[in-house]
């Protein structure tokens, strides 16, 4: 495996829910880091990866239990700074000769306050300016004796060893979680740690872009690459980056399944074909998709039809390119991180998400995934670096199956047309009120029900629709957006006045969970 040429920090994951936040905090400091499950971090891996520093994450296990996760002991012989967090702290103490015990009234969950225990060490630079620091604790076990060589530098009422360090070896261990928001000054601790470990903050988007271009050229040589372009941020940024690296060796395929929003197909085609001058196949397959969906109302059946047809169509058009060896995908880092599972069993499928899974094997293609190391906001930054217009980069996510999953029940052309118009009015309202960037995703769903209304002196019998707008970080959980009543009232009036076919507007105030963001 070839690793990034930047200074590398290794995060050993023991399965904490918030491990990804550690990586976020570090990336914000322009430090390159990777998360790897503890089982994969062998002595050989360590030699190959050659980290400049290591962080041991938190996790749900108890170090007291037989068979609980342990990092390889070689990690402590690397001669690089190590920071253990929560479970990482306990595992460090246990392995280095200290002692960990079960709760007995010392479990701590939630807010706690740490006060300094003795002289301020570099790790705590900028801490305790107001005597004490608020931190977030989440532990059942606690360290009852610290390992030889360590001293205590911070305590809390229930964690006498809240911050400990062995300054000779540059080993640090904290009982709390500095990566979460509830530890307001936590970012400072990471900043101090990477500074003392000698990181120079060389992980910038400009540097990443140059390195990614070099790697793409190296990987692809003079072969041809095809890329499924959806108009979403990830595939767009991947396409522009690859085009910059290999020019016309790249051909993009844009599949129009008839389930796009108003003006979307034209926008994508104009942007990539005319503005970026990319070879682009515009596969207008509306008839095919809408024909196959005719009469179908079951959400999973609809998704499966779209997923399968998408692959067929993509394969057909990619074949026109002739002799492509590579398929480009906008895979992101969160899709790549292997999760540490202690519960075993597979998770339940809520919805079968549509992507081009299985396609590379089927077509005998190798993958080019230049965004594999990036988080979503970093992809946006790279997009800006590549000169993509801000309006494009800031677009809300749009699902692969498009409007199909915003049209519960049977999909008809009439309903799709009404939905497109209503959605355009709603988004226009959101933009006019300057709310677009505060909202993670907003759209209209057309409901499979007609209701009675009165317009002028006449009776109407038209569709009802639901407005949806959520805030979210990653789409995994979401809250409904708290629009003002004025905004909602004005938007309902506009939709009913401007969109023939809708006479009732509702606002969906379900969070996720228990709801999902899309309606199907
Ligand atoms: P749900 O509805 O599951 O959606 O709460 C979470 C996020 O994922 C998007 N989504 C999809 N994206 N293919 C995609 O590319 C899909 O099949 C798909 N289904 C949902 C959804 O728009 C939201 O942002």
From TrEMBL:
Q: Hey, what's the signal peptide range on this chain?
A: none
Which keywords fit this entry according to its UniProt record?
ATP-binding, Glutamine amidotransferase, GMP biosynthesis, Ligase, Nucleotide-binding, Purine biosynthesis
Q: Which GO terms describe its molecular function?
A: GMP synthase (glutamine-hydrolyzing) activity
Domain of life of the organism in this record?
A: Bacteria
State the reactions this protein catalyses.
Answer: XMP + L-glutamine + ATP + H2O = GMP + L-glutamate + AMP + diphosphate + 2 H(+)
Give the Pfam families listed for this entry: GATase, GMP_synt_C, NAD_synthase
Q: Which residues form the GMPS ATP-PPase domain?
A: 203-395
Q: What class of enzyme is it?
A: ligase
Annotated positions binding ATP: 230-236
List the pathway annotation. Purine metabolism; GMP biosynthesis; GMP from XMP (L-Gln route): step 1/1
Return the InterPro entries for the record. Class_I_gatase-like (IPR029062), GATASE (IPR017926), GMP_synth_C (IPR001674), GMP_synth_GATase (IPR004739), GMP_synthase (IPR022955), GMPS_ATP_PPase_dom (IPR025777), NAD/GMP_synthase (IPR022310), Rossmann-like_a/b/a_fold (IPR014729)
What EC number(s) is this enzyme filed under? 6.3.5.2
Q: Which SUPFAM superfamilies match?
A: Adenine nucleotide alpha hydrolases-like (SSF52402), Class I glutamine amidotransferase-like (SSF52317), GMP synthetase C-terminal dimerisation domain (SSF54810)
Active site positions, chain numbering: 86 (nucleophile), 177, 179
Q: What does this protein do?
A: Catalyzes the synthesis of GMP from XMP.
Query: By its UniProt entry, which PANTHER family does this protein fall under?
Result: GMP SYNTHASE [GLUTAMINE-HYDROLYZING], GMP SYNTHASE-RELATED
Q: How does it assemble?
A: Homodimer.
Q: In its UniProt entry, what is this protein called? A: GMP synthase [glutamine-hydrolyzing]
Organism in which the protein naturally occurs: Sedimentitalea xiamensis
* Lineage of the species this protein comes from: Bacteria, Pseudomonadati, Pseudomonadota, Alphaproteobacteria, Rhodobacterales
């Amino acid at each position: 495996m070839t690793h990034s040429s930047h200074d590398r920090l290794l995060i050993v994951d023991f399965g904490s829910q918030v491990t990804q936040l550690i990586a976020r905090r570090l990336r914000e400091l322009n430090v390159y880091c990777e998360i790897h499950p503890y089982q994969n971090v062998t002595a050989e891996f360590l030699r190959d990866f050659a980290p400049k520093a290591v962080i041991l994450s938190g996790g749900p296990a108890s170090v007291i239990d037989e068979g609980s996760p342990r990092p390889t002991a070689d990690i402590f012989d690397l001669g690089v700074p190590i920071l253990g967090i929560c479970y990482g702290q306990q595992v460090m103490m246990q392995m280095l000769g200290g002692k960990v015990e079960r709760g007995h009234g010392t479990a701590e969950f939630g807010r706690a306050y740490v006060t300094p225990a003795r002289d301020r060490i570099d790790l705590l630079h900028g801490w305790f300016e107001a005597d004490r620091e608020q931190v977030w604790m989440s532990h059942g076990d606690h360290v009852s004796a610290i390992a030889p060589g360590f001293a205590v530098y911070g305590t809390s009422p229930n964690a006498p060893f809240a911050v400990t360090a062995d300054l000779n070896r540059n080993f640090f261990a904290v009982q709390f979680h500095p990566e979460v928001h509830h530890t307001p000054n936590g970012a400072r601790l990471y900043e101090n740690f990477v500074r003392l470990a000698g990181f120079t903050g060389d992980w910038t988007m400009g540097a990443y872009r140059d390195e990614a271009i070099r790697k793409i050229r190296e990987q692809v040589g003079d072969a041809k690459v095809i890329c499924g372009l959806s108009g979403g941020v990830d595939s767009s940024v991947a396409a522009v980056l690859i085009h910059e690296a290999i020019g016309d060796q790249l051909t993009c395929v844009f599949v129009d399944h008839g389930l796009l929003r108003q003006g979307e197909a034209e926008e994508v085609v104009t942007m990539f074909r005319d503005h970026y001058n990319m070879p682009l196949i515009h596969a207008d397959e509306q008839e095919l998709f809408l024909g196959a969906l005719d009469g179908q109302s079951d959400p999973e059946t609809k998704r499966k039809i779209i997923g399968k047809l998408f692959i067929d169509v993509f394969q057909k058009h990619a074949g026109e390119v002739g002799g492509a060896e590579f398929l480009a995908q906008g895979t992101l880092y969160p899709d790549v991180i292997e999760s540490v599972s202690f519960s075993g069993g597979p998770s339940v499928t809520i919805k079968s998400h549509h992507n081009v899974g299985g396609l590379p094997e089927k077509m005998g293609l190798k993958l080019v995934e230049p965004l594999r190391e990036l988080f979503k906001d970093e992809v946006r930054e790279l997009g800006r670096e590549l000169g993509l217009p801000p309006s494009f980069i800031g677009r809300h996510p749009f699902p692969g199956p498009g409007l199909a999953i915003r049209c519960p029940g049977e999909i008809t052309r009439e309903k799709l047309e009404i939905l497109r118009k209503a959605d355009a009015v709603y988004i226009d309202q959101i933009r006019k009120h300057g709310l677009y960037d505060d909202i993670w995703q907003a759209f209209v769903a057309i409901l499979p029900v007609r209701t009675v209304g009165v317009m002028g002196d006449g009776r109407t019998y038209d569709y009802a629709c639901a407005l949806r707008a959520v805030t979210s970080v990653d789409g995994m959980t979401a809250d409904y957006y708290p629009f003002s009543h004025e905004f909602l009232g004005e938007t309902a009036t506009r939709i009913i006045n401007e969109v023939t076919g809708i006479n009732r507007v509702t606002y969906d105030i379900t969070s996720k969970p228990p709801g999902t963001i899309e309606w199907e």
